[in-house]
Amino acid sequence: MFQELFEAAIVGGGPAGLSAALTLGRARRSTVIIDHHKPRNKMVRHSHGFLTRDGLSPREFRELAKEELKKYPSVRFINDEIVDVRRNHKIFQVTTKNGVLETKKMLFATGLVDVLPEIDGFDAVYGISAFICPYCDGWEFRDKPIAIIGHQLADFHFVKALYGWSHDVRAFYERQV
Ligand SMILES: Cc1cc2nc3c(=O)[nH]c(=O)nc-3n(C[C@H](O)[C@H](O)[C@H](O)COP(=O)(O)OP(=O)(O)OC[C@H]3O[C@@H](n4cnc5c(N)ncnc54)[C@H](O)[C@@H]3O)c2cc1C
Description:
Layout: E1 5-11, H1 15-26, E2 31-35, H2 58-69, E3 75-79, E4 82-88, E5 91-96, E6 99-108, H3 122-125, H4 134-137, E7 146-150, H5 156-162, E8 169-173
Helix pairs in contact: 1-2
């Protein structure tokens, strides 16, 4: 593991962490990105709605971003999982599964984890014909039958929003007991 004291350590090498690294690299800050390759959209083939990159796969997006970051020598990558962070006299000690590094600042860009419905077979279609965000994937399914799976009738506004993509929308809600 690196011996130097970094100016910034970024946890997470998704779009958020990589964007932060670009700005820090251009500012000539010694920066390390630690990532264990478990992005939220790992099952997605095509990502949409990001200007100039519409339809690119998330994997390609990350590779292009990493290629761009090679221009900035102060930015380094570690493929590892952070398991602990402690602050000691203004210095953060970051422990990964394979070692320890030190940094003055920490930036958490760890994304989020979706809570998915417990439906048999859902995993097989998630990211292919089942999605979380109509703005990301609604266009590809325009004018086709769409089913919404929700938890409460308060999601009704979602039904109205989806009507813009298709007029054949059916909503399924868990029964509240
Ligand atoms: C089905 C689906 C479709 C989507 N479609 C689109 C779309 O079309 N357009 C769009 O803009 N967005 C889409 N999204 C949302 C997209 O996933 C997010 O916008 C994007 O991934 C957010 O980037 P991020 O950097 O915040 O998080 P992530 O991409 O999730 O990256 C976080 C990273 O942090 C790392 N990490 C977390 N904890 C640790 C740790 N302890 N140690 C080391 N590394 C760690 C993870 O390994 C991961 O690589 C979709 C999501 C899903 C689920």
